[in-house]
Every structure is written in C-alpha cells, then in structure tokens.
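REQUEST FORM: STRUCTURE PREDICTION
Request ID: SP-0412
Submitted by: Lab K.M.
Chain count: 1
Length (residues): 172
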Amino acid sequence: PNTTFTPGWSGFTADWFSPRIPQWEEFIKPLYAGKPCRWLELGSYEGRSAIWALDNILTNAVCSIHCVDIWAGKYEENFDNNIAARDDSYKVHKHKSDVEKFLMDYRLTSYGDPFDVVYVDADHQAKSALTDAALAWPLLKPGGFLIFDDYPWQHPETDPDRHRKLGPQKGI
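STATUS: Completed
RESULT:
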C-alpha cells in the first residue's frame, strides 16, 4: 500500500528516462499501446519510466506493470507518491526486493502469466545486467521484448572502484 502519499505531490529528483522516449515511441508503443499488456520493470527508482509507460502504452484497463527495486529512503517515498497520485495506480504492483531474488522467487512461485515486455534498468554493472537478462528471459512471452537501459553507461570518475567495475555494456 502507498502509505506515504503526500497530497499534491508531483515530482522527481532526476530524469534519466526522457532520452529513451523516442525509441520507445517508435518501437514499443505501436506494438502494445492500448492493448492488454503485462510489463516488468527491473529498477524503478522514482517511477518516471513506469508512469510514462502507464500514460502511453499501458492504457488498457487490464494492463499491469510490476516494478522491482531495492528502494531506499526518499526514492521509495517519491516512487510511492508519484504512483499514488494516479487514477490507474491499481495497475502498478510494487515489489521491494533485490532484482535477482525477485526473479528467482517469481520463477518459483509464478505470480501469473509471462510478460510482454521486461525493462532492465537496475544495477549498472555488467554482471548484474547479464544475470537480470538471463533470469528474466524465461519470463517473457514468445515474441516479447527485453529492453536494456544504460548500454553506454560508465561508472563515474568519482567512484574510487570504477576501474574494477565493468559497465552494463559488457553484460548486455
């Protein structure tokens, strides 16, 4: 339940999603907009991409989106507030979990039908991107889409361990 809703809330602290919109509009929206669709988002942060999908693709009343994140502090509160402010928040299934654990549990318990789309945008390391993809692949419907985010992403110069970490590109 969205117990931290703040009336009138509308906002995000960052926008890393908007540059992806043209590709999603070109490749994903024509296939799924307005049709029944099950969506899985691995790494939801404050909900910006989930909200865009709700507004532009998951418009059919029977659509659903499962949002998985380890959320911490204000980012979980922001996600909750951003989703709770919507009339279609019933379509959002929030899973506060490590992505790998969620995917393993989902495979074992089977919450329902496979997904039409899986969006991988969680941990920004090669190993995690590869693991998330491998565990999510069997959860896709035949002909479904596995979307990766952050292909060119590199660990920032301020990260003291950046030379030991591989960005998601190698895992993808």
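NOTES: The first helix runs from residue 21 to 32.
Reviewed by: T.R.
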